[in-house]
Amino acid sequence: MLRAVRIAAWAGIAVLLFLSVALGIGWWRVDGPTVAQEVSSTPRALPQIGGPFSLVDHRGRRVSEKDFVGRPMLVFFGFTHCPDVCPTALFEMTTRLAALGEEGAKLQALFVTVDPERDTAAQMALYLGSFDPRIVGLTGSRAEVEAASAAYRVIARRVPLEDGGYTMDHTASVFMVDSGGRFAGTIDHHEDNEAALAKMRRLAGS
């Protein structure tokens, strides 16, 4: 009896060892490809962010992405009635462009409204007077703005206020687009200044 128990125990251990090895080298399948196959098939490219747009700049001119071909871009979505995030982002963009000097001059900065009902070209021009003159404001119809927002995967929604007005919740990252029109990453709203400058410097050289 004891001998049979020992044989059964050793047999169980052998099965567990086999399964461990099999899973480790990808022999064993569980409803599909092996773990190794799944890892090797995972895409490593950056997500598809950015694309064509047709909007009106803060000077009243119709522009598209073709007007900025060959220049790396910093693209920020916001609105002029924003209480803190937008003015902070644009102020930081202003100071960082100045800090980069000639490298900063290679970058094109865009401020795209998510609130076109209030942000006319004239309103955008008035607002941007407080920031670097190289920052171009973009607005348009609701459909045009939503198309640009969708291209950059920006989330924006109107939030009613108690006084009957509204504010906007929106994505607060700065999108970086290289000189070939390819998405090159983001600068987070809480990014360390030196880290942000390093990203902008690399983008200027793209």
Largest sheet: 7 strands, mixed
The CATH architecture of the largest domain comes to 3-Layer(aba) Sandwich
Query: Considering DSSP H and I runs of 4 or more, what fraction of the residues is helical?
Result: 25-40%
Q: How many domains?
A: 2
Shape: globular
Class of secondary structure makeup: alpha+beta
Oligomeric organization of the protein chains: single chain
Number of strands: 9
CATH topology of the largest domain: Glutaredoxin
CATH superfamily of the largest domain: Glutaredoxin
Global Rg: 26 Å
- The overall average pLDDT, rounded, is 83
Count helical runs.
6
Strand arrangement within the widest β-sheet reads 2-1-5-4-3-8-9
The fraction of residues assigned to DSSP E strands is 15-25%
Poorly predicted tracts of residues: 1-43
Straight-line distance between termini: 76 Å
- Provide the CATH top-level class of the largest domain: Alpha Beta
Taken in chain order, the helices and strands follow as: HHEEEHEHEHEEEEH
